[in-house]
Amino acid sequence: MSATPRYRRVVLKVSGEALMGSQGFGIDVSVVDRIAADIAEARALGVEVGVVIGGGNIFRGVAVASKGGDRVTGDHMGMLATVINSLALRTSLVKIGVEAVVLSAIAMPELCESFSQRQATAYMNAGKVVIFAGGTGNPFFTTDSAAALRAAEIGADALFKGTQVDGVYSADPLKTKDAVRYDRLTHERVMREGLRIMDTAAIALARENNIPIIVFSIHEEGGFAAILKGAGRCTIVDDDPADLDAVKA
Ligand SMILES: Nc1ncnc2c1ncn2[C@@H]1O[C@H](COP(=O)(O)OP(=O)(O)OP(=O)(O)O)[C@@H](O)[C@H]1O
Ligand SMILES: O=c1ccn([C@@H]2O[C@H](COP(=O)(O)O)[C@@H](O)[C@H]2O)c(=O)[nH]1
Fold first, then answer.
1. List of domains in the chain
2. Where do the annotations place ATP binding (predicted)?
3. What is the pLDDT of residues 218-230, one digit of tens each?
């Protein structure tokens, strides 16, 4: 394990669904507090951290569309769910002394600042954790795409996807018992084999911008910092062989 983190600036995508803990819906504050502690650990390593949180613990637009409702309105509701989650994470971070700011893709000045690439970069340079709320601000997208987009905009070295499972498998491990877990994959293979750990738009954007994606379990306490230090269980999605060698060393 290396003491020097191998990434200087990262975006962490946090599963919205993970925030509900065992409740089945909404926010379990103890889970948010634990994720905040993991982010604090990464900051203590000197890594600049941007965060995108999903909304699956509260609302997904497809839920409306599948019942014959208006998809765009459903997606607006989903994006608002991500703002709620972002405000919860900011509260948990501030509580433990980590400077954090929420920047929303949808203007709501009474609640938080609006996103701009310039402001986000300035806050990150100043060492604040920047929480990107409201997804991309557009319907028909997901927070995975928002995470890849923000990672490209702020020049992140890697996109960490903290999700319900500990890596990318040959099939959804929650549905297929004998699914095989991969340590390393290329973006191209993830897309070609339709490995649905992230939506295709997010993978494509990361690939075009040479951003590695690191998939790990958000439930693993200390997992984020461990991977930053070169240890920890994860799948690395990267097209740059030299980069993969560096991970191995
Ligand atoms: N090939 C695969 N490898 C790993 N997980 C997979 C694969 N295919 C599907 N999955 C499933 O994808 C899930 C992650 O998808 P998704 O991004 O929708 O959830 P999330 O990370 O909880 O995000 P959110 O709740 O914010 O939408 C995993 O929990 C896993 O069950
Ligand atoms: O850019 C975006 C991001 C999200 N949405 C809507 O929000 C929900 C929640 O996000 P998840 O990524 O599924 O956690 C999503 O289902 C969409 O309905 C969006 O419209 N645009």
1. 9-248 (3.40.1160.10)
2. 13-16, 56, 60, 163-164, 169, 172
3. 999 999 999 999 9
